[in-house]
Specification:
By secondary structure, the protein is α+β, with helices and mostly antiparallel strands. It has one domain. The protein contains four helices and two strands. It has a two-stranded antiparallel sheet with strand order 1-2. Helix 1 runs parallel beside helix 4. The N terminus is likely disordered.
């Protein structure tokens, strides 16, 4: 998500990253992830092989803002639509689909994998980042 206004969250320490994206073909991007031994789960593989997943041939930068659902004002959780509407109200935008792999390449020390905890099964691993982007299906 892109943040236009520095004062949107004045009382909240938030993660802001500038991410360089673009400049690689889809094949080159996948190869680069393999070179860094980045594991891709089934959903990631589906995204990368989907024809709607495209990459920009030109490099560009964007800022991301890391927030929890609670940071958006939903203490008890929310639907994806509610989250997207609230983010839009705060001046945030959906991320391009290609951000995920580029962010992962720039965050090589991200905790990765299943922890072995049966209660965490079918959930994102601790330390993972969910990216708000266009929903394909």
């Amino acid at each position: 998500m892109h943040r236009e206004n520095e004062d949107v969250y004045p009382n909240r320490l938030i993660g802001i990253r500038t991410v360089e994206i673009g400049g690689l073909t889809k094949s080159q991007l996948i190869q680069k992830m393999q070179e860094h031994s980045i594991m891709i789960n089934e959903y990631g593989e589906q995204l990368l092989t989907d024809n709607r997943f495209t990459t920009s041939d030109k490099k560009y930068s964007l800022q991301t803002v890391e927030l929890t659902v609670s940071d958006l004002g939903f203490r008890d959780g929310a639907t994806t639509d509610q989250i997207f509407i609230r983010a839009t109200e705060l001046g945030l935008e959906l991320c391009p689909l290609e951000l995920g792999p580029y962010l992962r390449l720039q965050y090589l020390d991200q905790p990765e994998g299943y922890s072995g905890d049966a209660l965490q099964r079918h959930q994102a691993p601790t330390g993972s980042i969910t990216i708000a982007s266009e929903i394909l299906t």
